[in-house]
UniProtKB/TrEMBL annotation:
Superkingdom, taxonomy of origin: Bacteria
UniProt-listed SUPFAM superfamilies: Putative DNA-binding domain (SSF46955)
Domain Helix-turn-helix: 39-87
Entry's transmembrane regions: none
Highest classification ranks of the organism: Bacteria, Pseudomonadati, Bacteroidota, Sphingobacteriia, Sphingobacteriales
PANTHER family in alphabetical order: HELIX-TURN-HELIX DOMAIN-CONTAINING PROTEIN, PTHR34585
UniProt protein name: Helix-turn-helix domain-containing protein
Length: 92
């Protein structure tokens, strides 16, 4: 049985690759006209960031991504999403 260990360098490379992917997703969203919106629903945020509902929930619970709840829907401000990305916050 082969054991694969994840090193710190592996994690640094992974983080860099994720940031590139996120920036590309935001650029695509911008080209699609989504950047004109100020507020995004959970599904929009998950699609832009390529994350699962559970990861988005963890970001909310840990206070890494502020949100507003209106009725049964949660909304995220574009500036909060961008701020989280610029600060290099880890998901989860």
């Amino acid at each position: 049985m082969e054991i694969n260990l994840v090193t710190k360098e592996d994690l640094i490379v992974f983080k860099a690759e994720m940031l590139v992917a996120i920036r590309e997703a935001l650029t695509k969203a911008s080209e699609d006209g989504l950047s004109k919106k100020q507020w995004f629903r959970s599904a929009d945020v998950r699609r832009m960031l390529g994350i699962s509902p559970g990861t988005l929930q963890t970001l909310r619970i840990n206070g890494k991504l502020p949100y507003r709840k209106i009725g049964g829907s949660m909304f995220y401000h574009a500036s909060d999403i961008e701020k989280m990305l610029k600060e290099g916050q880890q998901y989860g």
